[in-house]
Amino acid sequence: MIKVGNNLIVNTDSEIDIKNCPDGNCIVLTCGLKLNSTVTASSIDEYGFTFCLQRSVYSLSNNIISPQEFNVHYTKKPDDLFPLLSVVTAMLLCDIDPKVFEIIRF
Predict the structure, then answer these.
(1) pTM for this structure?
(2) Which of 5, 10, 55, 65 is the most exposed place for a label (fewest CB within 10 A)?
(3) Total number of domains constituting the chain
C-alpha cells in the first residue's frame, strides 16, 4: 500500500486498510491482475509487461491522466507484479511522463 497525496494505491488482492486515510477522503486505486483493477498488466513476459491504466485519475498537480497503455521493462521478471504496478502508478501520479518507462528498466 502506497499513499500519494490523497490517493491510496492498494493491491487488488488485499483488504483495504482505510485507517491509512485518517480523514476518510482517500481515492483508492487498485493494482493487480484482476479485470476490475484500476491498474493492471497485460502481455507479461520475461522482459516486461504492458501497464494498463483503466480509468482516468488525477495527478498531484491536478492534471488528468487518461486511460492508457505503455510498456514497462525489467531486468528480471518478478514473482509479484504488484510492487512494480504500484511504483509506476505512484510515478504517474507525480506527473512522470509515461515515455520514461520505455527507456528505464526496473
Answers:
(1) 0.90
(2) 55
(3) 1
